[in-house]
């Protein structure tokens, strides 16, 4: 009888996916919320402490330094990727000799594992002997002393993250630009619009939802930045290049303070949701205006 009533069919078809999401996302999320309200470590009984874990991390100056570092790196990475990906996507949308080769080179970093990328960039920027540092010394008169200088360390972390994740933004923007109607751009040119006006009034209008989606996802992913920073500097020197991902890692796996680690993870999630909600709202307004 249930299968004869077809209104149940969509629910039945998606129930395995919903069960999988509940098992892999919902239940662990509930457990992390519960853990953040308890004091938990190896060799001792878990005890309820309420909001004490949140008070602990919010009163820790290293947490706020890690938050500031994360904020700086995330904004530098996300908007630099957008500034690089947009002109590259526009250029790739034209026909030229070797386009396939150029596109393959640009998206190649996405196929490199983060560990391999960090090892490669460490050697390229090795003080005094790294090729890129030698070039910087020759042409700019300085080197990136990322081992001792926190600002240089955060700079190299940002450069490395941009190099690894630029293909993600590039692919999204290139796909969006490829769908812009050519006849609308030609009509704007016939009306006397310059190429800049065509880009601003036609191309950007069509690709803005894709831009917002790319920004939203890159903000969420970049907030969880860990591998690049940990493998490059481990948060040093003196934890001055530490980001929230490293702060969480130290709390959980160095100090075995699982309650504080869970609270840090939820703080990172709330930060990601706050950013995502802003871009989702902008995307919703854009879709409503186009509708």
Describe this entry's structure for a reader.
The protein is mainly α. It has one domain: MetI-like fold. 73% of the residues lie in helices and 1% in strands. The chain has helices at residues 9-36, 52-58, 61-92, 99-107, 114-124, 131-139, 150-178, 182-190, 195-223, 227-232, 244-254, 258-290; strands at residues 38-39, 47-48. Strands 1-2 form a two-stranded antiparallel sheet. A hairpin with a 7-residue loop joins strand 1 and strand 2 (47-48). It is globular, with a radius of gyration of 24 Å. The chain starts with 8 loop residues before the first helix and ends with a helix. The relative contact order is 0.12. The mean pLDDT is 89.
Q: What name is given to the CATH topology? A: MetI-like fold
Structural class: mainly alpha
Number of helices: 12
Unreliable stretches: none
Task: Work out the count of structural domains.
Answer: 1
Characteristic key phrases:
291 residues; mainly alpha; MetI-like fold; 2 strands; globular
What secondary-structure arrangement, pairings included, does this model have?
Elements lengths: L8 H28 L1 E2 L7 E2 L3 H7 L2 H32 L6 H9 L6 H11 L6 H9 L10 H29 L3 H9 L4 H29 L3 H6 L11 H11 L3 H33 L1
Antiparallel strand pairs: 1-2
Helix pairs in contact: 1-12, 2-12, 3-7, 3-9, 7-9, 8-9, 9-12, 11-12
């Amino acid at each position: 009888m249930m299968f004869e009533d077809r209104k149940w069919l969509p629910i039945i078809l998606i129930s395995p996916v919903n069960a999988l999401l509940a098992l892999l996302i919902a239940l662990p999320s509930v457990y992390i919320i519960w853990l953040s309200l308890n004091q938990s470590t190896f060799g001792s009984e878990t005890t309820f402490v309420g909001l004490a874990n949140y008070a602990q991390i919010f009163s820790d100056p290293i947490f706020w330094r890690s938050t500031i570092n994360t904020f700086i790196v995330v904004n530098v990475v996300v908007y630099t990727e957008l500034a690089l990906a947009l002109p590259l996507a526009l250029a790739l949308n034209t026909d030229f000799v070797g386009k396939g080769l150029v596109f393959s080179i640009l998206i190649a970093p996405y196929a490199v594992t983060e560990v391999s990328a960090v090892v490669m960039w460490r050697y390229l920027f090795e003080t005094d002997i790294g090729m890129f540092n030698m070039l910087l010394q020759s042409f700019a008169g300085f080197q990136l002393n990322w081992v001792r200088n926190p600002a240089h360390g955060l700079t190299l972390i940002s450069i490395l993250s941009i190099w690894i994740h630029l293909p993600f933004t590039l692919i999204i923007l290139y796909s969006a630009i490829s769908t812009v109607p050519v006849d609308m751009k030609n009509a704007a040119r016939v009306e006397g619009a310059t190429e800049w006006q065509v880009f601003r009034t036609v191309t950007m209008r069509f690709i803005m939802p894709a831009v917002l989606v790319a920004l939203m996802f890159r903000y969420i992913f970049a907030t969880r930045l860990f591998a690049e920073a940990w493998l490059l500097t481990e948060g040093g020197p003196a934890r001055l290049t530490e980001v929230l991902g490293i702060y969480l890692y130290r709390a959980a796996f160095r100090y075995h303070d699982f309650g504080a680690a869970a609270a840090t993870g939820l703080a990172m999630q709330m930060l990601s949701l706050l950013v995502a909600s802003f871009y989702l709202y902008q995307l919703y307004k854009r879709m409503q205006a186009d509708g």
